[in-house]
Design a protein that fits this description.
15% strand; Aspartate Aminotransferase, domain 2; 2 domains; alpha/beta; four-stranded antiparallel β-sheet
C-alpha cells in the first residue's frame, strides 16, 4: 500500500477498518478536554467499557448469594476459570487443556521453573536474552542461587552484536549449540520489551529441544499481540500477563501454558495446592494431592474472581474478533506509523532511528524510536499535548499502536504533534 501523510488519507483508512468500531468499546483518558492518543498498551491497556458489567455481576452475586456464589451464581466461582480455556487457547495457539489462569506473571514463571528448571551437576545453565525485563533477570538470579549455583556461571545471556539493536536468530541458535550438554533451560521473552523485537519462537524452541533442554517463553508482550502456536511449536511452558494487550486492568491475573505432553508425567515436580486437586473430590479435603488433568493441575490457590472478571470481559472481546483480524490491522497501522515517523524525520532537524526490526515478521504492535538530538523535554511535550507514550533512558520512546483502540487518524495527528514539539522547542 502507498501511504500518504494527510488527514484525509488517514480518515479513509479508518473508514475501511473493520475494527475501527472497537474504539468505542474503550474508555480513554482526556487531556485538554480531548481523548488522548494512547500508545502505552504495551504497559497497561485501556479499560473496556464492558468490564464494569462483568465486575458488577460478581459484586451482585457476592451481595445476594455470599458463599453460595461459588455454586449458584450465573458464572459459579468454583469453575469461573474454566471459561478462559477456549478463548485463551485460540489467543496463544493451544489446546484448551493446556491453558489456565492464576497468580501473576513472575509468580507463575517461578512456579513453572519448579517443574522445568531441574538442574543437575552437569546440566544447569539457563539461556536468556540480553536486556531481558528486570523481573525476569531477578527471577533467574534467585532461581539459580536457590539451587546452589552462581548466577555468573549458570545464566548465559545472548548478546547483540556491536552496533546492532536486535539479536540475530543465528546467534541464538549458535549459543544454544555452544552451551550444549550444560543447558537445562531456554527462557526468553517472546517480544523484547525494550526494542519490540519478536523472536522466532518455533526455531528457538526446536534448537533448545535438540540440545536436550526445556524451552519456555515469557509472553508478557506477545500474548494478544503476536500470532502464537504454542502447541504446534512444541513449547514446554509459557506464561503471560493480561493487563497489557489484553486490557484486564493493573497487575491482573496471569495466564499459563503447559504442553499436553507433560500433563501425565507424574515425575515432573510442582508446588501443589488444593485448587489444583481433583475437581470432583476437592471439597472432600483429602490429604493426598491428586492433580486436575491439564494445566489447571498447576493451580494452587482459590482464584481471585474479582480479578478474573475484567480478564474474562477482555478474552470474550478477543473471541469475537479473532487474532487474524487483529494482526492484519496491527501490521497495517504499525507500517503507517513507521511511514509517518519517516515523513516527519524529513521535515525536522532531529533524526529518528527506529530500533525495532523493519521486517514485519520480527515486530508487532510496537516501534521503539531512538530520538537523536532530543531529550526528555520532547516526551514531556507529547504528554502535555495528549499523546500518552513511554520513555526509556537514554532517549527512546516506545509507541504501541494497539489495533483494538488506536486509529489511523491517531497516527497522523501524532506525527503533527511530534513535529510541533521538535520545531517549537
Amino acid at each position: 500500500m502507498t501511504f500518504e501523510n494527510t488527514l484525509e488519507f488517514a480518515i479513509k483508512l479508518d473508514s475501511q477498518d473493520q475494527l475501527h468500531k472497537y474504539q468505542d468499546e474503550f474508555i480513554f483518558p482526556q487531556v485538554n478536554g480531548k481523548k488522548v492518543i494512547y500508545f502505552t498498551g504495551n504497559s497497561l491497556g485501556l479499560q473496556p467499557k464492558r468490564t464494569k458489567t462483568y465486575v458488577d455481576e460478581v459484586m451482585n452475586d457476592w451481595a445476594n448469594l455470599a458463599v453460595e456464589g461459588h455454586f449458584y451464581s450465573d458464572k459459579p466461582w468454583w469453575d469461573y476459570h474454566e471459561r478462559f480455556a477456549d478463548p485463551l487457547s485460540k489467543i496463544v495457539g493451544a489446546l484448551p487443556s493446556e491453558v489456565t489462569v492464576m497468580n501473576t506473571l513472575t509468580v507463575n514463571l517461578h512456579l513453572l521453573m519448579v517443574s522445568f528448571y531441574r538442574p543437575t551437576q552437569t546440566r544447569y545453565k539457563i539461556i536468556c536474552e540480553e536486556k531481558a525485563f528486570p523481573s525476569d533477570q531477578y527471577m533467574f538470579q534467585s532461581q539459580v542461587s536457590f539451587h546452589g549455583y552462581k548466577p555468573e556461571d549458570a545464566i548465559v545471556e545472548i548478546k547483540r552484536r556491536d552496533g546492532e539493536h536486535n539479536i540475530r536468530l543465528e546467534d541464538v541458535v549458535a549459543k544454544i549449540e555452544e552451551v550444549g550438554d550444560e543447558l537445562a533451560l531456554v527462557l526468553i521473552g517472546g517480544v523484547n520489551y525494550y526494542t519490540g523485537q519478536v523472536f522466532d519462537m518455533k526455531t528457538i524452541t526446536a534448537a533448545g529441544h535438540k540440545a536436550g533442554a526445556y524451552v519456555g517463553w515469557d509472553l508478557a508482550h506477545a500474548a494478544g499481540n503476536v500470532k502464537l502456536e504454542l502447541h504446534d511449536w512444541n513449547v514446554d511452558f509459557a506464561s503471560w500477563c493480561s493487563y497489557k494487550y489484553m486490557n484486564s486492568g493493573p497487575g491482573n491475573a496471569s495466564g499459563c501454558f503447559i504442553h499436553e505432553k507433560h500433563h501425565d508425567n507424574s515425575e515432573l515436580p510442582r508446588f501443589a495446592g488444593w485448587w489444583g486437586h481433583n475437581k470432583e473430590r476437592r471439597f472432600k479435603m483429602e490429604q493426598t494431592f491428586d492433580p486436575v488433568h491439564g494445566a489447571d493441575g498447576w493451580q494452587i490457590s482459590n482464584l481471585p474472581i474479582l480479578s478474573l472478571a475484567p480478564y474474562l470481559a477482555s478474552v470474550d472481546m478477543f473471541n469475537e474478533i479473532g487474532m487474524d483480524a487483529l494482526i492484519q490491522k496491527r501490521d497495517t497501522i504499525t507500517a503507517y506509523l513507521e511511514f509517518i515517523l519517516h515523513e516527519i524525520d524529513e521535515e525536522v532537524d532531529s533524526t529518528f532511528e527506529i530500533i525495532t526490526p523493519s521486517n514485519p515478521a520480527e515486530r508487532a504492535s510496537q516501534l521503539s524510536v531512538l530520538l537523536h538530538g532530543e531529550g526528555r523535554s520532547l516526551f514531556d511535550y507529547l504528554m502535555k499535548n495528549g499523546v500518552i507514550t513511554d520513555w526509556r533512558e537514554p532517549n527512546v520512546i516506545r509507541l504501541a499502536p494497539v489495533p483494538l483502540y488506536t486509529s489511523f487518524e491517531d497516527m497522523y495527528l501524532f506525527g503533527q504533534i511530534l513535529k510541533a514539539g521538535i520545531i517549537n522547542k
